[in-house]
């Protein structure tokens, strides 16, 4: 493992500070600094950006982001054991790292960030999807972030980028692809982590679109997609009957056969259906 800075290797940092990963916090640490630097590079040119990182742990990805030239990194860490290790990173990088001890679901990062803002994180498994949904569903669009570079369980990553007709295609794919370009950029086996999780992981890069890919009311689209995929084995005329009294007419007007199922319907068609339902 070659060094990316003058700080100790991560195994040494973990041993020094007693940072054994805790399952209750969804922790699985990446120890290869070459790998964390590779993930940081997937976030794009960081030189003029503030970067928000969630769950930095012992600071592997944090060091990668700083070494790749991030203007500033704001790291939110729930585990108080990690704070001294992160303080050493902050000292080595001339104040470009700010660490907040707290729950990422409760901290408002915008008080500490200056645009343009990118988000990069090896997300704790237990809050990853919830954070992604929050970032994709702000009240106003475009959002405060320009891109997201996030690690998930591979199964979740595949749901984000899934195409119609696949088993992975569902609400998460619609949500992500309506307002962002999403692609898997790195696949990681369990043995890349300490301790190794039981599943493979993948890094997804999402770039915010200036406006949604197709026009639709966000609340209506969310309601339609939720109803459709909550009963994904049913035909749409059955799964959506509670959404509109004349649902078959609305489906036909949107160019969708009432006998189709949710996984057969494209994002563009769901948006068209949402517009029809909003009209009615």
Give an account of the 3D structure.
This protein has 280 residues and is of the alpha/beta class. The protein has two domains: 10-208, Vaccinia Virus protein VP39 (Rossmann fold, 3-Layer(aba) Sandwich), CATH 3.40.50.150; 218-279, Orthogonal Bundle (Helicase, Ruva Protein, domain 3). Helix content is 35%, strand content 18%. The chain contains eleven helices and nine strands. It has helices at residues 10-17, 33-42, 60-67, 83-92, 128-136, 154-161, 171-179, 218-230, 236-239, 247-253, 267-279; strands at 29-30, 50-54, 72-77, 97-101, 117-122, 147-153, 180-188, 193-194, 201-208. The strands form two sheets. A seven-stranded mixed sheet has the order 4-3-2-5-6-9-7, with helices on both faces. β5 (117-122), α5 and β6 (147-153) form a beta-alpha-beta unit. α2 packs across α3 (60-67) and α8 packs across α11 (267-279). The relative contact order is 0.11. The mean pLDDT is 95.
